[in-house]
Design goal:
Layout: E1 8-13, H1 23-40, E2 44-47, H2 61-70, E3 77-83, H3 89-102, E4 107-112, H4 119-125, H5 136-147, E5 168-172, H6 175-184, E6 188-190, H7 199-209, E7 221-229, H8 233-239, H9 241-251, H10 271-280, E8 285-287, H11 289-303, E9 307-311, H12 317-332
Parallel strand pairs: 1-2, 1-9, 2-3, 3-4, 4-5, 5-6, 6-7, 7-8, 7-9
Length: 334
């Protein structure tokens, strides 16, 4: 059986904007986290693309990745993911081709099928374009081709981009991307940090239908896990009231900035909202090192994934860095 020591640990940063803090401070903290992850030995750090959300500062994903790459040395960074319906495949290939040309062997491209925003913003992002999610498989194939060596007579070539062979992942929260990742022989990351319902089905479908490719000879699965790790269970549950408030606000269609923790979350949510938060955060690991270690071991035994990619929405930035420190101590058995 695979152990935590054998499992890769990665980070997904949504670059949260905190109440009473500036967007600039969030962008600077993204670099602090990247440097911290590099020092601790995390396998990769990804940024997620979202738009028109006051509480998330990673909308210009490729630009922010350039900032992180320029100020770190060895850490692999990438997108978790670029929301492909918002972009022309050639532009994505050129952006990530440029990044990997500047920083060889450090850049990864995770591709998502959803717009990562609301309908009105989606129309603003796609202005002048008619593409839909149904084109996702064709767009993925187009990007993969741009990263290869150009074929004789190929009329459209990504420069920079061609011959860079940027590693491409498919991301998803349903069965569609699992099936496509299996067909194309690509690594697959499931968004169980916010949509855990179909995790087991998606992993099974991916593994059963996987076709070896030039990219992978066997399936590779990553799963998203929200975390709040602290010195004690009590402190962790207190710190977790920040992400709880964010989720409640989302259910109420009141998306906003990340709020400080509160003493009594019961005063905030209704019984129905409490149940919805628990379903949303079904894979979350909240508690002391001992508690979270036991929880991660249960996830690993059940899903046998190759990698955990952790999110963390702690308000206090020092406590947030400590969260990833404690996770790595769990992995190393300290």
């Amino acid at each position: 059986m695979t152990t935590l020591a054998d499992t890769k640990f990665a980070i997904l940063d949504l670059v949260p904007v905190r109440e009473n803090k500036s967007i600039q401070s969030s962008l600077h903290h993204a670099l602090d986290l990247a440097r911290h992850a590099e020092k601790l030995g995390y396998d990769r750090l990804w940024l997620a693309e979202h738009h028109n959300m006051s509480g998330i500062a990673s909308s210009a994903t490729a630009v922010l990745l350039g900032y992180l790459l320029a100020n770190t040395t060895t850490l692999r960074v990438g997108s978790g993911g670029i929301m492909l319906p918002n972009h022309a495949p050639l532009v994505v290939a050129e952006q990530f081709g440029t990044l990997t040309t500047l920083y060889p062997n450090r850049v990864e491209l995770g591709l998502g099928r959803a717009p990562g925003t609301d309908q009105m913003t989606m129309r603003a992002l796609r202005r002048g374009r008619q593409e839909t999610e149904d084109q996702f498989p064709q767009d993925v194939l187009e990007i993969l081709q741009y990263f290869k060596d150009p074929e004789p007579g190929q009329r459209i070539i990504a420069t920079p981009g061609h011959s860079t062979h940027v590693p491409v992942w498919l991301l998803g929260s349903s069965l569609f991307s699992a099936q496509l990742a299996a067909k194309l022989g690509l690594p697959y990351s499931f968004a169980s940090h916010f949509a855990p319902r179909m995790l087991g089905q998606a992993i099974q479908l991916y593994r059963e239908n996987f076709e070896p490719s030039e990219y992978l000879d066997k399936p590779y699965v990553s799963m998203g896990v929200p975390t709040v790790v602290a010195e004690t269970d009590e402190e962790a549950h207190y710190l977790a009231t920040s992400p709880y408030q964010r989720i409640i606000a989302m259910f109420r269609n009141q998306r906003g900035k990340l709020r400080p923790p509160i003493d009594n979350i019961e005063e905030i949510w209704s019984p129905a909202e409490r149940m919805s938060v628990q379903q949303f955060y079904a894979m979350a690991q909240i508690g002391s090192k001992a508690t979270v270690k036991a929880g991660l071991e249960q996830l690993l035994e059940k899903y046998e994934v190759d990698e955990f990619i952790f999110t963390c929405d702690i308000y206090d930035i020092e406590k947030r860095l400590q969260n990833f420190d404690l996770l790595m101590q769990i992995k190393q058995g300290l």
